[in-house]
Amino acid sequence: MNSLSYSIPKDAILFDSQDEKFKSPFGAIPCGEGVTFNFFTDKSINCLNVSLFLINGKETEYKMTQIGEEKIGDRDYIVWSLNFTAPKPAKTIFYHFKLFVGNENSIFYYGNNSLALGGIGEIYENYPINYQITLFYKNNPTPNWFKESIAYQIFPDRFKNGNKDGKINNPKNNSFIYGKWSDIPMYIKNSKNEIARWDFYGGNLKGITEKINYLKGLNVGTLYLNPIFEATSNHRYDTNNYHNIDPILGSYKDFKDLVKECKKRGIFTILDGVFNHTGKESLYFKEASKSKASPFYPWYRFQNYPYDYECWWGIKDLPCVNELEPSFFKYIIEGENSVINHWMKTGVKGWRLDVADELPSFFIESLKYKCKTIDSESIVIGEVWEDASNKISYGQRREYFNGKQLDSVMNYPLRTYLLNFYNGSIDSDTLCKYMNSLKENYPRENYFALFNLLGTHDVKRIKTSVKEVIQNYPIDLKYLEPATLRVLKSLSLIQFTLPGVPVIYYGDEVGLEGGKDPDNRRTYPWGNEDQDLLKWYRKISYLRSSSKVLKKGEIKFFSPHPDVFAYIRYLPNERDFIGVITNRNPNRSKIFKINLKEFLGQFSNNIPTDIYRWNDPLIIPIDSSTNFPIKIPPLKTLLFSSKSV
């Protein structure tokens, strides 16, 4: 019980989960390996003992030991320590501290901060928020080719028609074709708000093959295709046959040619795997609906056969499957002609798993094992919209990053964090906390393989999202477009200089706009591209693809000012580094001094004699000292480097 008359000053306790002085090693750790915790209490509070409470299914108390004293500033601290062996199996575990202070009746707790983002925590009288540690199995690296690549996402119907005569392959029944490639997409719905007719533009696989050199000009190394299997809709998340290419996209040969031509240019292809549900018009569901004797009947969950069945988010066109039903499991993963086998034999390098939250863990684990058996350098990416290290889905905590499931996830949090920073919802210090939280929670192999995105087929176009932010700024409307482009360039530069795989959603690189679905799935504007923006993307993609620092370097985040977010990428014990600083203020430049010793810490002795500032479109040497002034114009992002880039 706490003594109500007793309180502890915040700085009387020191612990920071993101500082190796207090927890070592940093971040996620292999299960079965050692962890050291150091917890500092000011001598003046008369702390009698400290315990660490570990939550791993059950709560276990570990007594910490006094190992000495340390003076920090004008305070004298007692150092409490615990050497701890991380448990098995690999899963996410949690912890907090319990203190007996002043006398045995004064009990306090120290836990995570109110945002649960790790780092410096808070003192609690009860019910502390827990810190987390992600445990993983060792020796499960993510492929270097993927971590060091740039990805490009294509919604196939909307990219390019490669037929010489411009005709559309095999138009679908009860559908309509737009009159012009530049028409704005729309849905035709019935009185029940259901899609009455699906709309198509006629983009196809030959069109993608025709533009491979364009992708190579953006230094793309990974091509991610939205679904290409036979389906009724234009998005094809309602699969009708997993073994067939949708005829409107072309043939099996067209697909093999695409994969082959991509590979010639060092581009690997990833497919969208939709294994949580099929289409209502699929050969599987049709047969299951006709007879309970059908081999496909066990795949589905009928409540009132054949009319009522479990479907994805209540959408009757998308009947859910039982992924662990033996015949479905064999059909997708284990069979000789399984879906995974069939398509990876064409040279496909991996899969993006649709709605990974709704796939059983065993299914994901088995799929990854199968992929790695076929190709040890293959990749499995999950659609997860939150911090994937502590995701709870249907009451179950998911262990995506235990080393046996996902290599990567779509990094939607990055998009959210950056837009929230620019729209004023959070300041730079909070943005740093969010960034450091992902860095702490994700195993390094997964962190450097994150699918870093600004746009996808499921969110508003990034230019549209930025424009909506800028419209709320106190600036003259005549500056709306220039300001939008400034922020767009800033966001893309940040995207291309963070650890992980930058992903371009087709058309974002040329200023394509669009609101919510279906508006975010407009056609690529061939002949009407924003050439200045395209030039910018080619520049930053070259920067990313040619820089060892940006591919492999560590990262430290900084908050010099509430409006200014900064970080530095560096290689330990090497001279090269790249720093990025962005100013979100729409009206004022920010001037302050950058101290490279603070940025680089123990590696600052390797600072070269020349520092460069990289600012579109110029490269300017600015100072040779380790403490130099930086002036950041409004809505601008600057890059400085140890050498000309």
TrEMBL record:
UniProt keyword annotations, A-Z: Glycosidase, Hydrolase
SMART domains given in the database record: Aamy
Stretches assigned to the Glycosyl hydrolase family 13 catalytic domain: 153-544
Molecular function per GO: hydrolase activity
Domain of life from the UniProt record: Bacteria
SUPFAM superfamilies: (Trans)glycosidases
Annotated protein name in UniProt: Glycoside hydrolase family 13 protein
Organism: Candidatus Cetobacterium colombiensis
